[in-house]
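User
New here, explain this?
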Amino acid sequence: MVKHERAVSSENCFLDTRMWGKEHGLSRPYPVMCHLLDTGAVFQELWDVVLSDKTQAAIADALGLNVVEGRTLVSFWAGLHDIGKITPPFQAQVPACYSPVRSDPAYVSAPGAETEKSFRHEIASHWALSELFAAAGYPGDRRLPRKSVGQQVAQLLGGHHGLFGAVLKAKEAAQASSYNPGLGAQGWAGQRRAHFEELRRAMGAFAVPVGGLPAGLAVVVAGLVVVADWLASQTSAIEPRIPEPGWSGTAEEVDAHWQAAVKAAPGLVQAARLGRARFSAEEFGAMFPFAPNSLQRDLAEHLPGLVGEHGAGLVLVTAPTGDGKTEAALFASSLLGRAAGARGLYFALPTMGTADAMLPRVEAFASRSLSGERALMLLHSMAWLSSADAGGKAAAFEAPVGEGLMSAGRGTVVEADGWLRGPKRGLLAPLGVGTIDQALSAVLPLRYNALRLFGLSDKVLVVDEAHAYGPWMHQLLVRLLEWLGAMGAPVVLLSATLTGRSAGSLVDAYRRGAGFREPSRVVPRYPGWLFASGVSGEVSAARSTASNRARTLKVSRRPVVWDAAEPAGAPVREGGRRAALREVLAPVVAEGGTALVCCTTVAEAQQTYRDVRAAFPGLMARPDGLRLLHSRFPADMRASITARCESMYSKPLSGEAVTARAASVLVATQVVEQSLDFDFDLVVSDLAPLAQLLQRAGRGRRHKRGPLGRPRWAAAEDEPELVVLDPLAVPDGSVPRSWGKVYDAGLLRRTSQVLLKCAGEGIAVPAGVQQLVDEVYEEDFVDRLEGAAREELARLDEERAAVEAAERHLAAWTGICAPADVQGDLSKLSRREVGVTEELLTTRLGADTGRVLCLYEQADGVVTFDPEGEAPVPAGGRHGLKAAELADVARRVAPVPGRWLRGGEPAGAVPQRWGTHPSLRDLVLLTMSSVGDGTWRCCHGRYTISMSEVGLEVE
C-alpha cells in the first residue's frame, strides 16, 4: 500500500529567501530555494530523456510506487541535494548575505559554528535529510540504520560531490546538531524543514516510498542527481532566472519559478546532448557496406534467436587479428542494445593510439546504424581537446560564451570543469570510444566513480583486446562486469588470444552480478563466440566458426646473444641479435617489401633503429624506408608517424592496382600489437609471451594483396613468417636485464619451449591457436622438463603465482565492493583502506606514467615550443591559457616513466599564469638546450633527458 501525506508547514516558520544557494559569477545571489526547484526540474527532464522505460519502471517498483509517482518523488530528492547549504558555515561564505542572518535572533547556533569549514554543505545535506525523511514518514530501522530508506536517500544525496559519507548511527541521526554544530540550532533546522516542505508541495511529491533502491539503481539515481545539479548550476541558466529584488518566496512565487524551471529544463538537457541513441538497423547489410565474413555471418544467423529467447547479456568473441572482430562486435552491440533498450555504447581499448584509430570506425557505424542522439566522445587522457566532428583529429573544445561555466565555490569549479569537459562527463555521452581505464575507474574508490558507473549503466560496453590486461586490471574488469551484470548493461568482449580460464572468470563475473552464481564452465572456441544471458542466466555452447584466412604461421626461432644495447658503429658479434637482424632484413632491403621489427622496450627500439640505419644506409635514402614508432614521442609527432604508417602499411583500397611495396622497415614497440590495421610482408619480434607474439604475427600478410602485391620472398600469402629473436635459446641464456619486469620470466621460458616445437611444423591459424595459448599456461607444463630447466621453471612459476596473487589482492584491496555487498551502504563505493590515496589509484591505473612538455631554449635565450624556434611559448594570463593555446600545449605533451620525474626541480612546474585546466595537472616542463646533431638535452633531478629524432631518452 502506497502511503500519501501532505506536507505541513512548520508553525511560524516561513521560507527565508535570504538563504542563498548560488553567488559566484552572478549579478545577485540566487536563493537556495530557486536552485532546488531548478535541479528538480532538470532531473525530471533527464528522467524522461536519458532513462529507459525499463529503468524507470525498476526504480518505481523498488520504491513501491507507479512510474509517475516514482518520477515525481525521485526528482524531489534531486532538488533536496543542496539543502545542506542552509547552515552557518555555508551561508558565512558570503559575509554580506550572512550578516543580517547572523544578527537575526531567530537563528541560533553554537559559538564558532560558521567556522566549521570542513563541514561541507553536501555532508550537511546527508545529516539534515536523515532527520527530515524520518519526520516525513519514510520507513526506518533503528537497529540497522543502513536499511532505513530515509538514511539511504540522505546518503545518496550527500554524495552529489562524488563521495558518499558513512551511514549515520541511530543516535547521530537523532541528535545531529549535537554532533555537528555546523548544522546550527534553533531557526536553521526550521528553515531547512520549511524548504523541504515547500519544495515537496511545489513538486507534488507527497508519496512515501515503501522500500529502498538496490545498489545498481541507487548508482543510477545518484549519477542523475549529479548531472541535474551541474546542468542547473550553469551561470547561463541561472542569470536570466534570478528573481527580482523583493522576491519573498510566497507559494505563488515558488509555483511560478517551478513552472519556469520546468519550461527551461528541456533546453538545458538538449544542449548537453545527453539523450538516447537508438539501435535502428537490424540487418548486417544495413550496418556495413560489405558482406559478412564467416564469423560475422554466424553471429548474424544465430545470435538474434538466442537474444530473442533469453534477453540481452554478454557476447564473447575469440578470433585472430584481421578476422573482423570489430564489425562483429558492433553488430552484436546493436542487437544487444536494441533488446536491452540501451542508450548507446562505449568501445574500450587498451591504448590511446588504438582508441584514436577506432573512433572513425565507430563514427561510420553510428551514421549508418543509429538514430536519435548520436553525440560521440573520444575518451582518454589527451581527449579533452578532441572531437568527433574533427574526424578524430585534435581540436580544442571551446564552449559558447557563458555555456558550461558554473556558479560554485572555487573548490567546486575545478571539479565541475574536469567533469564537464573531461572523462567524468564523457561517459555520459550516448556514444564513446576510449581507453579501458576510463571504464575501470568506475570500480575504484575515486571521486565521482558512481557517475562513471551511471554513464556505463545503460550502454553496451565493448572491451577490445580483453586478453591484454595484467592480473590487477583483469580483476578490476571482473568487478566492473559484476556491476554491469547487476545493472543489466550488455557487454561484448573481444580477444585474439584469451585463455579458457580467463574467459570463464569474465563470463562468470557478469552472470554473478546478474544473480546467477553457479560457475558456467566456459570452454571458448577459436575462432568462435558464445552468449551468456543476463536475464535467464543461460550460457550457450561456444560456436566454432570458419576463418576466411586459415593460414600456417611459419615460425623461425633464432637463438641470439643479447647485444641490443651495443652502439650502432660497434663490431657485429657473430650469433648476436644485431647479426640476426641484419640477416633477416637483408632480403627486404635487396628485393623490396615491408618488415616490422618489434622490440620489448622503447630504449631498445631507439637503439635498434639506429643500428638498422647504420647497417642499411640505403633505407634512409628512400622516402619512408625506415621508421620508428613508440609511445615516447610528443603527441603530435606520434600521431603524424602513426598516420603515415597507416598509409604505408594498410589494407589496399578497393580497385587499387596492387604491386609489391618498396623496401621499408618499421621499428616499433608493443604499440603495434593492438587494433592497428598494419600489414607487413615479414614480422620480426624479440621474444615475448606467446599471446603477444601471435598478436604481432597477425600483422604479417594480414590482407590479400594478390600475386603481384608482395616481393618474391614473401609470395606465399597464406604462410606468413614470424622470426623470433630468442635470448633464452642459447646455452645459459637468460632474460635480458634491460627488460626488467615487462614480461614474466616464467612465461618467456614456457613460450621459448613451445616455439621450439612450432619452429618445424608452424602454427595453424586459427585452428591451433587456442590449444597453444592454453598450453603455455598449463600447470603440468613444468612436468615435461627435466633437470635444471625443470627446477628453474618451477621457481619462476612460483614467483609468477605470488605476483599474480599480490596483484589480485591489490585489486581487491583498492577496488570497490561487488554490488551484492553494498547492502544499502553507498559509502562502500567511496571507502578507501588506510594508505590508499587517489594519487596511488590513478598512478597504479596509469602504470606510473608522467607527462612532459619539451621547451627549446634558442641561441638568443628565447624559449619556444619547437626546435626550429617558430612556435613561441604563451605567457598566459589572469584566466590562464586560451583554448587554442591549451590545445597547442597538449599536442606537444609526451608520456615518460614516472621515475624520470621524481626529485626534479621546481623550475619544471607549470607557470601559474597558465591556469589550472585539468590537462595541465602534473605536467612537467623540460627546458632543453641544443647539443648539436638535432639533439636537445636537459638535466632533471638525477637524470639527463634528451630529445631527438628517435624521441625522448634518458641517461
Summary: DSSP finds 33 helices and 28 strands in the chain. The radius of gyration is 30 Å. The mean pLDDT is 87. The first helix runs from residue 32 to 50.
